[in-house]
Design goal:
The complex is a heterodimer of chains A (295) and B (323). Chain A is of the alpha/beta class and 295 residues long. Helix content of chain A is 34%, strand content 25%. Chain B has a domain of 201 residues: Orthogonal Bundle (MetI-like fold), CATH 1.10.3720.10. In chain B, helix 1 crosses helix 12 and helix 3 packs antiparallel against helix 9. Classes of the chains: A alpha/beta (295), B mainly alpha (323). Chain B: It comes from Isoptericola halotolerans.
Chain lengths: 295, 323
């Protein structure tokens, strides 16, 4: 019944075939003080679900070709902010967004904006690998097909995409097989490949490794480091080490409690270069979270 | 400070330790037996029906050869000279199934897609109960609906749509009116089973599709329907079986003339209508006509069995196991 193989077994095989996995490397990159070319700029972003004020007053910038990590305890609104950037929150009928979200200077929640066009430029990878119950090939080809991308050869595009996602060698002999036969880690990399097949500008990742074992996680982190060259990546993660390993900048969110009403809302505490956040945070709450004292 | 200590010896008084079952378990055994009986009943009844049909059917084929039954000779079991060409009433059933499925399958699937993917919360709250009410209307009411409304309407518009000699309006009982009404009757079954299958698709798949910039229509046609395909096939087969087995509507609206035809304008006699009509009429026990009833019933049984077996095979083939 369960076609999914043990993740660790599969990854071990893949590892043996592809040679040793290099040890995780701390990203050593020059990160400017502020993002040079912001892809997204939010200004006083507030998000409500019905009466619930989920996120309050978030103002930040996401730099081009950078990896920005959003970290913080549960309920701090990091995923909500992420889903606001490609208008996935539109799928929730009660969600309401106010304030400004600019994407290359264009107001994302402007009256003439089509969320479908937005999502065609801003790809997304989800917490749980969610390949379509179709072949590996059709999973990759889905995006180009629905967006009506002009493609000379779909076969070439599928191959290129899978190579960019470092999945080609593992799946090249079973492109026509159902994606559900892949291991969990491979499925998630397939989902990343599927997201970049349409050549989006940004890839949003919502806790992409939370369901994976450490080896599969490592491979995805390596992949992200490679993809950074061509894409802007924004990742929500519960794993602080992951944020420290992969990201250029880190935004720390937390749950803020209104002292008079007792209402809880998520908000941004500190946003800086990852090295600064992890080595020299300026807010006590950040320091407390990073060092594991709360949250 | 007192350290936590393991409790010392168990208190020496009290009943001796016993691990034997207490008598209360007998009740449980009784209930299990009762539940097994309930489950076995269905199997026993099925076996009973097969046996009850098998005997008279064998007797029928002793009196009438296979080659006469499976033929296009006239269908007139209780006339002189008699005729047993079952193809005539098989065609009647096929015609009804054809037209009713032409209506029920697309409309049922469409309703399911609308309910699951497009309908607002409010629209769904109104539509679903209405569909369920439609499912609960007695078939005889549908039969009346066919005779009183659909047949006259079709009689009126038929010549407008069909030119020439074929454009003669039909009589008051004919294939299309029964087929249309039967189709309407089956829509809720197809819709509700398909929609159940669609709503069982993990939300993540829909999110993935939207995240890639799919339109609502693309999500519905390229992700939801293919992912729910096995359930949709099951709903189609269920609809088809109902059309094959439905009796009252065809008895009232399709006519009583065994006709080797699929033409929508003709009256037909279906297998079920034959059994319904003949069995409630004046049939002497042990006559050939009596045995004919069982032969036709056996054929119906085999047809629905084959349809269901095909359906199970299809459902297995297309099933995706979502975690």
């Amino acid at each position: 019944m369960n076609a999914r193989k043990k993740d660790s077994e599969m990854t071990d095989q893949a590892t043996r075939a592809a040679g040793p996995v290099p040890s995780p490397q701390r990203a050593v990159r020059d990160v400017p003080d502020v993002p040079k070319e912001p892809v997204f700029t939010t200004q006083d972003l507030n998000i409500h679900y019905g009466d619930f004020h989920a996120v309050t007053d978030v103002s930040m910038e996401f730099g081009k070709n950078e990896i920005t990590a959003l970290i913080g305890p549960s309920g701090c609104g990091k995923s909500t902010v992420l889903r606001c950037l490609n208008r996935m929150n539109d799928l929730i009928p009660t969600a309401r967004v106010s304030g400004e979200v600019r994407y290359h200077g264009i107001e994302l929640y402007g009256p003439k904006i089509d969320p479908i066009e937005v999502r065609r430029r801003i790809g997304m990878v989800f917490q749980k690998a969610n390949p379509f119950p179709k072949s590996i090939y059709d999973n990759i080809a889905y995006g180009p097909r629905v967006t009506g991308m002009k493609v000379d050869s779909m076969d070439d595009l599928v191959e290129q995409t899978l190579r960019r996602a470092a999945l080609w060698d593992e799946v090249k002999d079973k492109l026509k097989q159902n994606a559900y036969g892949l291991s969990g880690g491979q499925q998630q990399r397939l989902c990343i490949a599927r997201a970049i097949a349409t050549n989006p500008d940004v890839v949003l990742m919502d806790e992409p490794c939370s369901a994976l074992d450490p080896i599969a996680t490592l491979r995805i982190e390596e992949l992200m480091a490679e993809l950074r060259e061509s894409y802007t990546i924004i990742i929500v993660t519960h794993n602080m080490q992951q944020a420290a390993r992969v990201s250029d900048r880190t935004a720390f969110f937390t749950v803020k409690v209104n002292e008079t009403t007792g209402d809880r809302t998520g908000g941004l505490v500190e946003f800086d270069r990852t090295t600064t956040i992890f080595e020299n945070p300026s807010d006590q709450r950040t320091e407390g979270y990073i060092s594991g004292r709360f949250g | 400070m007192a350290l936590l200590t393991a409790p010392t010896e168990p208190s020496s008084v009290g009943p001796p330790l016993s691990l034997e079952p207490s008598s209360r378990r007998l009740g449980e055994k009784f209930i299990v037996a009762l539940l097994f009986g309930a489950a076995a009943l269905a199997v026993l009844i099925t076996v009973g029906i097969v046996l009850a049909i098998a005997g008279p059917t064998i007797e029928f084929f002793r009196q009438v050869p296979f080659s006469r039954f499976f033929s296009t000779e006239a269908w007139a079991p209780n006339f002189v000279p008699d005729g047993f060409g079952v193809y005539n009433i098989l065609a009647g059933t096929a015609a009804i199934v054809l037209y009713s499925c032409m209506i029920a399958l697309p409309a049922g699937l469409g309703a399911a897609i609308y309910l699951n993917e497009y309908a607002s919360h409010r629209a769904r709250r109104i539509l679903k109960p209405v569909l369920e009410v439609l499912e609960g209307i007695p078939t005889v009411v549908y039969g009346l609906f066919a005779l009183a409304f659909v047949a006259p309407l079709l009689q009126e518009i038929w010549p407008t749509f069909v030119p020439g000699k074929l454009g003669d309006p039909p009589g008051f009982q004919f294939v299309l009116s029964a087929g249309v009404v039967l189709g309407i009757m089956i829509i809720p079954t197809v819709a509700s089973v398909s929609q159940d299958a669609m709503s069982a698709i993990p939300h993540g798949l829909r999110e993935a599709a939207y995240g890639l910039g799919s339109t609502k229509m693309q999500v519905a046609t390229k992700v939801v329907v293919p992912s729910a395909f096995s359930g949709i096939v099951a709903s189609f087969v269920l609809g088809l079986s109902r059309a094959v087995g439905e009796t009252m509507v065809v008895l009232m609206a399709a006519g009583a003339i065994a006709n080797l035809t699929l033409w929508p304008n003709d009256p037909v006699l279906t297998m079920t209508a034959f059994i319904g009509r003949t069995a409630t009429g004046d049939v002497g026990f042990g006559t050939t006509t009596y045995y004919t009833l069982f032969a036709v019933a056996a054929l119906l049984f085999v047809i629905t069995l084959v349809v269901n077996m095909i359906s199970i095979a299809l459902v297995r083939k297309f099933r995706e196991v979502y975690e």
